[in-house]
């Protein structure tokens, strides 16, 4: 990695951290678990990296490592999004009346 | 415009989807849409990468590219989809933790593979940036991998939820840290030797275990959230290793937002993250011997099942206060059965839900909904607190710190200021609890020495089953 590349990557890294700090504000406690699960799915993006190393795997060790990496990452992505959706679906299904008023204002 | 440029733009859009998706998940009304938006971004990034590989726009010199990708996706996708669809709501935190372990493992593997490839060429093939990123990725990713698996095991009950104090625990951790630091320095300064990386990997894997082992089951949700933030950081490091911006953005995003979320969760339990990781206490599965006195100096009155059954059956208003102990004992169905029985006798039953009751915030609502408790009976803290004065009996099922009046009255108490349920205002109180062991905060609960309080010791499910037959016999 050249110095230029490193600097632009570092810039992206630092700005993304700051965005990460800002994007989560006051979250009601009921949403903590789904939010954790949702963030968990996002780091499944490592699947992109796993596929890129699969594309250059030309020896037995690399092949084994990249199969496992792709499988792990896919499980993270697919399972993560599905389970988060299942959780959030349940939040929606509940009748809102007793809680709706106070919660919306809080 | 070349395909490579196009896909890089797709990555930018994906990153925007992740940010907006996370933001939408702040509110219950938009949360589901947020998650779906984030999933769309993910699908775009993955499909774009597949297109790049297919078109040969990235170096695609591998021998088995498509078999690897297809096999990996089928196995991983199948396992992920199956477990996500079939998991019981009570087992949700474990599953999230397992998915997190997979992400951390994958991130570490990406860096290991790059390293192995380079070390095959010579000991100085990788630049300093890549080596530093590799070292960080391998350490953080491996700690997350074993740590998350162990956390899942603890929640599932495969591994004891009790904090395990390792003999020479701290000394052992220091040795691991020294090994990790020495190997990391060797890799960066001297040269890229495979055996040294293997040693670093081993130290990190073991550290994941020794880090989580001393932490109690009750604190696992916070630990899982913390490990989730770790994985994000590991993925960002993997992005540095293979020079891919979307990994850097998404990883850093999760690392930071996961960190904030961990702090929010710890705050809701009135604990600090450091206290949880270093403290190594806080459990619901303990069987520490029953002591009949508390530090408050008061003595504790133990009830018989029949006394309790009579109190409940002849009450007019009963408020059930479910807590962590109920979740551990999986007693939500018997609780609902007892409540139904009391209602048949004309007793008015309500449930008081503290925001952090259960194994994770918001968990109690889900558990009771699963046991078919009608939603209007679940009353949130601020709405139920004025009603305790009218209640004849408050039935506390495995809840502890959230009922401790010291939070209101004793400024020197570590939990002072934490919002609690005003259980002590009820005419009489029945507490079902495994033992006199203190809760997360490790402090005595003045409620138990209150003269109005009667204790029923035992597993919540067993006690409730006995209560049900006693009420039926009346």
Oligomer: heterodimer
Strand content of chain A: under 5%
Chains forming the largest contact: A-B, 87 and 119 residues
Report the β-strand fraction of chain B as a percent range: 5-15%
The biggest beta sheet of chain B reads: 6 strands, parallel
Strand order of the largest sheet of chain B: 3-2-1-4-5-6
Helix count, DSSP H or I runs of 4 or more residues of chain B: 17
Structural class of chain A: mainly alpha
Low-confidence runs of chain A (pLDDT<50, min 5 residues)?
94-106
Instruction: Determine Rg of chain A (CA atoms, Å).
Output: 20 Å
Order of helices and strands of chain A: HHHHH
Tell me roughly what share of residues is in helical segments of chain B: 55-70%
| Mean pLDDT level of chain A | 84
Run of helices and strands of chain B: HHHHHHHHHHHEHHEHEHEHEEH
Mean pLDDT of chain B: 86
How many β-strands of chain B, per DSSP?
6
How far is the first residue's CA from the last residue's CA of chain B? Answer: 82 Å
- Secondary structure category of chain B: alpha/beta
What structural keywords apply?
heterodimer; A: 106 residues; mainly alpha; 79% helix; 0% strand; flat; disordered C terminus; B: 474 residues; 17 helices; elongated
Can you offer a commentary on this structure?
The complex is a heterodimer of chains A (about 110) and B (about 475). In chain A, α2 (about 30-40) packs antiparallel against α4 (about 60-95) and α3 (about 45-55) packs antiparallel against α4. Chain A has helices at about 5-25, 30-40, 45-55, 60-95, 95-105. Mean pLDDT of chain A is about 85; it is low at about 95-105. Chain A has 5 helices and no strands. With about 110 residues, chain A is mainly alpha-helical. Chain A is about 80% helix and about 0% strand. Chain B has about 475 residues and is α/β, with parallel strands linked by helices. Chain B is built from 17 helices and 6 strands. A 6-stranded parallel β-sheet of chain B has the order 3-2-1-4-5-6. In chain B, α5 (about 130-155) packs antiparallel against α8, α6 (about 170-190) packs antiparallel against α7 and α8 (about 220-240) runs antiparallel to α9. The longest helix of chain B is centred in the N-terminal third of the chain and has 30 residues, at about 90-120. Chain B is elongated and about 80 Å long. Mean pLDDT of chain B is about 85; it is low at about 280-295. Classes of the chains: A mainly alpha (about 110), B alpha/beta (about 475). At the A-B interface, α1, α2, α3, α4 and α5 of A face α1, α2, α3, α4 and α8 of B.
